[in-house]
Write a structure and sequence with these properties.
Layout lengths: L2 H15 L3 H16 L3 H11 L5 H16 L1 H10 L10 H12 L4 H7 L5 H5 L1 H6 L4 H8 L4 H11 L3 H8 L5 E5 L6 H10 L4 E3 L6 E4 L9 H4 L3 E3 L2 H10 L6 E4 L6 H9 L5 E6 L2 H14 L4 E5 L10 H4 L5 E7 L14 H4 L4 H17 L2 E11 L8 H10 L4 E2 L2 H5 L3 H4 L7 E3 L1 H4 L4 E7 L3
Parallel strand pairs: 5-6, 5-8, 6-7, 8-9
Antiparallel strand pairs: 1-3, 1-4, 2-3, 9-12, 10-12, 11-12
Helix pairs in contact: 1-6, 2-4, 3-4, 5-6, 10-11, 10-12, 11-12, 15-16, 20-21
Length: about 450
């Protein structure tokens, strides 16, 4: 964080601690968020349209504080428990907000004590040392990174000694990353255009067209965005599109396309010459895909509605190419654990017993999509989760059901980058925030023999 932003945060933290409209707004947002743990981004969007009087620094502070309260809930409650003096009342949301301001925004404990004198605010501020002294990795992760116990245990089981670093990475703020749309520009030209508008960028380390924006900005208000020269897309997500490696004049199917972030990347990768069929069960997302495609200048992508019933016949656009498709991307619906940086509230909505149903659905979707492959064609199974039950376990189950599918070595697709991007056994793409600065993504390339 820049020094100016730190000074702004301390100033605004003092304003919030003293009461007034900003404090009331934050408490209202926090209490509404906890009712159903719906998307924080949606709630903020509605609020900012209503609260026109807020300045840009206040909007930023409100957004980061609300996200912070979601990200640090268990740590905050542990801090308040450490600061309870005999006879103190049970911590309330007002206390949680003050604790967040002390832990994350530089509010001095003495100023918090003037507002709530019955708590020991020095003990509140010292909570991280208490958590670090816990010798049990699972509880350090669960409390320190504010995760449900079951999720912390899963991370320890799946990632071993890396679990704590991974959890901290998933609990951090995500960078603002864009993909240069090569149908309209290049990464270097886009960086120059943004620099001319006073926006500093750095090139992504892993994905060929990724740029990280270093300057705080409303991305969707940029002229480059309006011209279709960029798309907001995490660098890990861009890597999945590169993993598909669509042939320029072949047929590629994005089987779970959603609103089309990867569809647009695939279309750009073909130079507009191949055919990309984007299917999804949600018509509203496909409408958004069509709008985005028009802005991006994509003319070779077709959006197709899928029946959500996996036993239903494929729509004609897919039935006609069954057994003839060069590349199939199955970006399967998943728990989204790898994207907690962007959607931190998801941890509180998710239940462990949902994982089995996710895996079963993922396998069913992948088996359905595999029927599209031509001889020699490749299927890329991908998720935005870091849990083995939804990743390698699903690939193993798919290969058990379709034993002819063979794993394609990552180096065959990604070249020298593969060594740094592969998981422990080298078979699959596994990127994560603590290793690569990306969201957590998984990708496996499977080939139908020629």
């Amino acid at each position: 964080m820049r020094e100016h932003d730190k000074e702004q945060d301390v100033r605004l933290a003092r304003i919030v601690a003293s009461g007034g409209k900003l404090r009331a707004l934050l408490l209202e947002l926090w209490q509404r968020t906890r009712l159903d743990w719906s998307f924080v981004s949606d709630r903020l969007s509605v609020t900012f349209r209503r609260e026109r009087s807020l300045g840009s620094s206040e909007r930023r502070f409100v957004a980061e504080t609300l996200y912070g309260l979601v990200r640090h809930l268990r740590r905050i409650d542990a801090a308040l428990a450490a600061g309870v003096r005999r006879g103190a009342s049970r911590p309330r949301d007002e206390h949680r907000l003050l604790a967040y301001l002390v832990l994350e925004c530089g509010l001095p404990p003495a100023e918090a004590a003037r507002v709530v004198p019955e708590l020991d605010w020095n003990a509140v501020r010292a909570i991280d040392g208490v958590i670090a002294a816990d010798r049990k990795a699972m509880s350090r992760i669960a409390i320190g990174c504010s995760l449900p116990d079951w999720l912390a245990a899963r991370l320890v089981a799946d990632w071993g000694d890396e679990a704590e670093a991974l959890a901290r990475g998933l609990n951090a703020r995500a960078p603002m990353t864009v993909r240069a749309n090569t149908l309209k520009t290049t990464r270097a030209a886009l960086a120059a255009a943004l620099a001319a508008d006073g926006i500093a960028t750095t090139e992504g380390r892993w994905a060929s067209h990724a740029l990280h924006l270093e300057t705080r900005v409303n991305l969707f208000g940029l002229e480059a965005f309006q011209r279709g020269e960029l798309e907001a897309q995490d660098e890990g997500s861009q890597l999945l599109a590169e993993l598909v490696d669509p042939p320029p004049r072949g047929t590629t199917v994005d089987f779970c396309a959603g609103a089309g972030g990867k569809t647009l990347a695939l279309a750009a990768a073909t130079g507009g010459k191949g055919r990309v069929v984007a299917s999804d069960v949600d018509p509203a997302k496909l409408d958004e895909l069509r709008r985005r495609a028009r802005r991006a200048g994509v003319a070779n992508a077709q959006a197709v509605a899928l029946d959500p019933d996996p036993t239903a016949p494929l729509p004609p656009a897919l039935a006609d190419v069954a057994g003839k498709v060069d590349r199939v991307l199955v970006d399967a619906p998943c728990s989204g654990v790898g994207a907690l940086r962007r959607n931190p509230e998801a941890r509180w909505r998710l239940a462990e017993d949902e994982l089995a149903s996710f895996a079963a659905r993922q396998l069913a979707i992948a088996r359905r999509a595999a029927a599209l492959l031509a001889p020699g064609g490749r299927l890329v199974y991908a998720t935005c989760t870091v849990l083995r039950v939804e990743n390698a376990a699903v690939v193993d189950a798919l290969r058990a059901a379709r034993p002819e599918l063979e794993v394609v070595p990552l180096a065959e697709v990604l070249g020298a980058r593969a060594a740094a991007l592969a998981g422990a056994d080298g078979r699959f793409l596994e990127v994560a925030p603590h290793r690569h600065g990306t969201d957590g993504f998984f990708g496996a390339v499977l080939r139908r023999p020629a």
